[in-house]
Hints:
Elements: E1 5-6, H1 30-39, E2 46-54, H2 60-73, E3 76-84, H3 85-94, E4 100-105, H4 112-118, H5 139-149, H6 154-170, E5 174-179, E6 182-188
Parallel strand pairs: 2-3, 2-4
Antiparallel strand pairs: 1-5, 4-6, 5-6
Helix pairs in contact: 5-6
Organism: Veronia nyctiphanis
InterPro entries: SBP_5, SBP_5_dom
Family: Belongs to the bacterial solute-binding protein 5 family.
Amino acid sequence: xxxxxxxxxxxxxxxxxxxxxxxxxxxxxxxxxxxxxxxxxxxxxxxxxxxxxxxxxxxxxxxxxxxxxxxxxxxxxxxxxxxxxxxxxxxxxxxxxxxxxxxxxxxxxxxxxxxxxxxxxxxxxxxxxxxxxxxxxxxxxxxxxxxxxxxxxxxxxxxxxxxxxxxxxxxxxxxxxxxxxxxxxxxxx
Length: 189
């Protein structure tokens, strides 16, 4: 990331009001990852393609290739494919073609915008899930987000968004990295 990356362990930077103090970065442990792969029944690994845009984000193609290399190191035969931005977003967001894809996100100060677009199940009638390419769904997250949206108490809203962040991260709904004030999101299904 040329110095602009930051390990966070969660969706938001630590100074954001909905950043959880309960979420910490997980240390990389290649041996443990290999062990977990074996325990999950993937002794010989499996194949996976990760997709992302090219020339949309800082070093996006290099990041895709780095992630593929890291996955190869634990026994997942990963291939990275960068696509022109328009093609990538059409195929990823509209048609949900990719099992793993890269998405950058700039969270808003309200919290609802981020959660509604990334973690509420896609529903055009409700204008939700527009960027939920993995079609993640969790009833608890939806309840927390909708309750926060309708609460006039900012302190309570922030508390609900922090809890929603914890659920999303603990569900491994995304594989994430935080870059300065933007969120880089890896969707998986």
